[in-house]
Amino acid sequence: MSFSTPPRSLASRLWFAWTMLVYVLFTPPYWVPWMLAMRLRPTARTFWRWFRGWDHVVFTLCGFRLRTVREGASGAEVGPAVYVANHQAMLDIPALILAMDAPFVFVARGSLRRVPLVAGILRQSRCVFLDRTASGTERALDESAERLGAGESVLFFPEGTRSFDGRLKSFYPSAFRLAIRAGVPIVPVALGGTHQLLDEKARTARPGLVHVRIGAPLHALPDENAGSLSARAHAEVERLLALAAPEAVPAEASGA
Q: CA-to-CA distance for 241 and 250, rounded, in angstroms?
């Protein structure tokens, strides 16, 4: 099966430049009041509420639209949970903030601490940084467990990196270890089409529709290990992705 990629025309490159300009121009006006709000009330809800406003501006000016389908209970009904989503492009982050109906914090790879502007936003957003070492992973899981205990949800991109072609990669086990340890459900999420609308690797973009499908919570079975829970979640994200973006799922499943 072939995979669709954004056209690398002059128009797509100009639209990418416009999208980056929108990010640069409209982030600073939100920065100062958002930081003040986070200092007064440093919670996931504060971050989520402020950035939804920013996301609406970015989506509107860049021509992105969002369609969200939730198959299970609402975020408020589910309560603290570990969300796991596929990762195709930078556009996934604002799309998820708009699509989710309950506040959460991202778990991001530690190397993003060195990325200008992005690092500052993530630090202020109560993001949990996960370094890919044994000790770094344990610290991140301990911090995430504290967030869950305080009633906040966390969101992982368990592939560990962006796929760029839309295909689902295998999952790292950290998110599933955390869910079992904390006794909270895994909520699978699939994003479809973001790599076609914004491809920062090819530096192309175009306006269009982002599909987000949020599945029903998955609870660990008695004595289930992280590998088994990861496999079940992978299969569910792949199913959701097939509904959100059928062209992104090959005839033979990629496997966990």
A: 11
User: Cα(109)–Cα(11) distance, rounded to whole angstroms?
Assistant: 32
Query: What domain range is 180 assigned to?
Result: 10-247
pLDDT along the chain (256 residues), means of 10: 55 93 84 84 86 89 95 93 95 93 88 67 79 88 95 95 88 97 98 91 92 96 96 97 71 42
Q: How far is CA 191 from the centre of its chain?
A: 8
Q: What does the alpha-carbon distance between residue 21 and residue 18 come to, in Å, rounded to a whole number? A: 5
Q: Please report whether residue 234 resides in a domain.
A: yes
User: How far is Cα of residue 236 from the mean position of the Cα atoms in its chain?
Assistant: 16
Count how many domains the chain has: 1
Q: Does residue 88 contact residue 5 with C-beta atoms inside 8 Å?
A: no
As a whole number of angstroms, the distance between CA 42 and CA 44 comes to: 7
Q: What is the pTM of this model?
A: 0.88
* Residue 26 structure tokens: 């409209």
Beta bridge partners of 106: 155
Q: 3-state SS of the chain?
A: CCCCCCCCCHHHHHHHHHHHHHHHHHCHHHHHHHHHHHHHCCCHHHHHHHHHHHHHHHHHHHCEEEEEEECCCCHHHHCCCEEEECCCCCCHHHHHHHHCCCCEEEEEEHHHHHCCCHHHHHHHCCCEEECCCHHHHHHHHHHHHHHHHCCCEEEECCCCCCCCCCCCCCCCCHHHHHHHHHCCCEEEEEEECHHHHEECCCCEECCEEEEEEECCCECCCCCCCHHHHHHHHHHHHHHHHHHHCHHHCCCCCCCC
CATH of the domain at 219: 3.40.1130
